[in-house]
Recover the amino acids of this structure.
């Protein structure tokens, strides 16, 4: 069978035998692919640099139609994201990103834009400053929601009208829009500052400036928490990796 070559990030791995491991790779052109890496745990592994969690490489894969696991024939390591090994906060954020990919992306369903967002967000976790880390968390949560079909509607309210001019708005998780009045029901809405919505409009490409350009860490933190709450609402549960990621990312925010 032909070998498929694709850029990939390892988002999970587990022991398969004494000498081999199974891996879950998020590939750029083929989505999530679970594969068997034979001999990857040997001292002289056939895979350059080994297949480690949250590393990016070029994968050679044989996808077999009648088996759950593809065969990983090659792994050419390209990026190790060293900040994730130096900083617990960066590592926790990276693990959250991997968790979101596994929860929102189906096997063999390509999401090229989301792959690019993952690669750039993992790289941004190595930048200096709390703002850069929070910006990466905000932008990747947004990318996941957008690619999965749950993009918040920030150019208009949940009723279809323009976003009202008010300093305090209400985000409606049931409809993914904003309004000014808290409605009835268990998910009646969450109060949110207008500055938080304006930041997310920048992320969406609606407002002026870059995603976190000129934004204080506190505003970025509120945006990260809002998107995190919306992610949990969509999934029906809070991912266990979310709280460590958000608490670590804002540890320096006073």
């Amino acid at each position: 069978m032909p070998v498929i070559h694709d850029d990939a990030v390892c988002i999970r791995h587990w022991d398969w035998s004494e000498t081999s491991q199974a891996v879950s790779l998020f590939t750029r052109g083929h989505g999530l692919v679970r594969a068997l890496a034979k001999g990857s745990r040997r001292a002289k592994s056939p895979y350059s640099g080994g297949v480690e969690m949250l590393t990016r490489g070029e994968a050679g894969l044989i996808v077999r139609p009648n088996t759950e696991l593809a065969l990983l024939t090659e792994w050419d390591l390209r990026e190790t994201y060293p900040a994730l090994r130096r900083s617990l906060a960066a590592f926790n954020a990276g693990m959250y990103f991997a968790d979101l990919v596994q929860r929102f992306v189906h096997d063999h369903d390509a999401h090229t834009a989301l792959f690019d967002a993952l690669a750039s967000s993992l790289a941004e976790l190595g930048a200096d400053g709390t703002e850069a880390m929070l910006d990466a968390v905000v932008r990747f949560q947004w990318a996941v929601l957008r690619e999965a079909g749950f993009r918040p509607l920030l150019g208009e309210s949940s009723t279809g009208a323009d976003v009202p001019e008010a300093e305090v708005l209400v985000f409606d998780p049931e409809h993914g829009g904003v309004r000014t009045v808290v409605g009835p029901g268990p998910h009646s809405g969450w109060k949110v500052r207008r500055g938080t919505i304006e930041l997310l409009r920048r992320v969406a490409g609606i407002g002026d400036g870059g995603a976190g350009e000129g934004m204080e860490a506190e505003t970025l933190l509120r945006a990260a928490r809002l998107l995190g709450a919306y992610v949990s609402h969509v999934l029906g549960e809070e991912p266990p990796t979310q709280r460590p990621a958000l608490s670590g990312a804002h540890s320096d925010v006073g």
